[in-house]
Amino acid sequence: AQSVAQPEDQVNVAEGNPLTVKCTYSVSGNPYLFWYVQYPNRGLQFLLKYITGDNLVKGSYGFEAEFNKSQTSFHLKKPSALVSDSALYFCAVRAAGNNRKLIWGLGTSLAVNP
Amino acid sequence: DTAVSQTPKYLVTQMGNDKSIKCEQNLGHDTMYWYKQDSKKFLKIMFSYNNKELIINETVPNRFSPKSPDKAHLNLHINSLELGDSAVYFCASSQDRGTYEQYFGPGTRLTVT
């Protein structure tokens, strides 16, 4: 079965510290992986994607994500967290056999404390 | 220059009513989607249209009916509204080639009383 897991409902980090939001996936074939961010009362915004190539992908707002095929993971990272990074983060993988359908994780709420 | 826009932003209505939400995208994308986000923030795909053709139709009550007059517009009509329909509904669009990342509208918060 195709799935995305975000094992942490909430992540708390102090401003200036590095942050990691975890994501693991299960899909057949080569995965197309995405991270989105949702600020309060807003729509989802695309952050970054992994398709192929370098396992470290850089995206918007200083975020990056590391693809690990053996661990089937795609963790979101940022070297130095900002209070303004506090939001809900979603990981998604493109469904095998349906290019247009994304399988979504349940989301991880990130709180960056000043 | 909003890429994906939805109207209305807020919708408060009574049980049993019929309502519509409209979505428009100016990105030139071929595929559009409707998602429902519940109070726990879980995101669920409902429908998708590609060039006015329905391509994703998840398990959704048939009170929900999407309509796509052209590839830039996707509307959602809901009949006989129920309390459980209260949620935020998001429209999204994606290009029909490449990596298919989706771009989302600001959402419509539907409250059924």
Keywords:
heterodimer, A: 114 residues, mainly beta, six-stranded mixed sheet, four-stranded antiparallel sheet, 51% strand, B: 113 residues, seven-stranded mixed sheet, 57% strand, globular
Strand content of chain A: over 45%
Taking all residues together, what is the mean pLDDT of chain B?
Answer: 93
SS-based structural class of chain B? Answer: mainly beta
Q: Which chain pair has the greatest contact?
A: A-B, 23 and 23 residues
Number of helices of chain A: 0
> Number of DSSP strands of chain B?
11
- How many β strands of chain A by DSSP? 12
* N-to-C CA distance of chain B: 34 Å
- Tell me about the biggest sheet of chain B? 7 strands, mixed
Shape of chain B: globular
Mean pLDDT of chain A: 94
Shape annotation of chain A: globular
3D structure, described in words:
The complex is a heterodimer of chains A (114) and B (113). Chain A has 114 residues and is mostly beta strands. Chain A has strands spanning 3-5, 10-14, 19-21, 24-26, 33-38, 44-50, 56-58, 64-68, 73-78, 87-94, 102-104, 108-113. In chain A, strands 2, 5, 6, 10, 11 and 12 form a six-stranded mixed beta sheet that branches. Chain A is globular. The mean pLDDT of chain A is 94. By secondary structure, chain B is mostly beta strands. The model of chain B has no long low-confidence stretch (mean pLDDT 93). Chain B contains no helices and eleven strands.
Chart the SSEs and their pairings.
The complex is a heterodimer of chains A (114) and B (113).
Chain A: E1 3-5, E2 10-14, E3 19-21, E4 24-26, E5 33-38, E6 44-50, E7 56-58, E8 64-68, E9 73-78, E10 87-94, E11 102-104, E12 108-113
Parallel strand pairs in A: 2-12
Antiparallel strand pairs in A: 1-4, 3-9, 5-6, 5-10, 7-8, 8-9, 10-11, 10-12
Chain B: E1 4-7, E2 10-13, E3 19-25, E4 31-37, E5 43-50, E6 53-57, E7 64-70, E8 73-78, E9 87-94, E10 102-104, E11 108-112
Parallel strand pairs in B: 2-11
Antiparallel strand pairs in B: 1-3, 3-8, 4-5, 4-9, 5-6, 7-8, 9-10, 9-11
